[in-house]
Every structure is written in C-alpha cells, then in structure tokens.
Design a protein that fits this description.
By secondary structure, the chain is of the alpha+beta class. It has one domain: Trna Endonuclease, Chain: A, domain 1. The chain has helices spanning about 5-25, 70, 75-90; strands spanning about 30-35, 40-45, 50-60, 100-105, 115-120. A five-stranded mixed beta sheet has the order 1-2-3-4-5, sandwiched between helices. β2 (about 40-45) and β3 (about 50-60) form a beta hairpin. It is globular. It starts with 6 loop residues before the first helix and ends with a strand. Pfam families: UPF0102 (PF02021). Belongs to the UPF0102 family. InterPro entries: Restrct_endonuc-II-like (IPR011335), tRNA_endonuc-like_dom_sf (IPR011856), UPF0102_YraN-like (IPR003509).
C-alpha cells in the first residue's frame, strides 16, 4: 500500500502535470512559482498560437470534497492574480499582444489516473 501524498507533494505533482499539459500544447513555460511580497504565480507561459502570455493558476485536488474548479478560483483570487500578473509584466522588457489568466485543475485521486481540466480566460 502506498503512502498518501502530502499536500506539498500533491501540489508539486499537479503543477508538473499542468506544465506537461501546456508544453504538449506547444506552449513555452516562461516562469514557475514566481514570487513577490504579495503572492505567487504558479506558471507563466507563452501560447504562440494566440501570441499571448498566460498566467496559469494550478489547482490540485485529491477528490471533490472542497468543490469543483469553479469554486476554487473566486473573484477575490482572480483579482489577486491580475495584480500579480501586472507586477510581473512591469518587470519585463518584452510586451505581448494578449494577456490571459487560465486555470488548470488537476484531480489526482489515489489509485486513479489524474484528470486535467483547462479553463481559459477566467479573468
């Protein structure tokens, strides 16, 4: 019998699965776990087809006990992500024609294949 993952291990697994998903789509990962004094952005990626920089919030769950993906990203969370994205962008020399916030939900229940849900343009 395998030991259940800690919360940190589950989060790291979900983030890696999300990055694998994005790179499989042909996206480039610009940064992971970008931090400043006001918070953290999980993944910052470039989507070539849309010529967009995408700020990706990764939500990993082991089940549905805390509600679905829509409940996990509240309007308050979206406002915080927008603020953090603005701070990251202000520090960049490059400019993008499109900016977007996506959410990748990973459901990684023990003993099952992980399920990914990618919501584009949440805020």
């Amino acid at each position: 019998m395998t030991k259940p993952l800690t919360r940190a291990q589950l989060g790291a697994l979900g983030e890696q699965l999300a990055v694998d998903h994005l790179t499989a789509l042909g996206w480039s990962v610009l940064a992971r776990n970008w931090r400043c004094r006001w918070g953290e952005l999980d993944v910052i990626a470039f989507e070539p087809a849309a010529s967009a920089v995408v700020f990706v919030e990764v939500k990993t769950r082991s089940g549905d006990g805390f509600g679905g993906l829509a409940q996990a990203v509240t309007p308050t969370k979206v406002r915080r992500l927008r603020r953090l994205a603005g701070l990251w962008l202000a520090d960049q020399s490059r400019h993008w024609s499109q900016i977007r916030i996506d959410v990748v939900g990973v459901k990684a229940a023990p003993g099952t294949e992980p399920e990914l849900t990618h919501l584009r343009g949440v805020g």
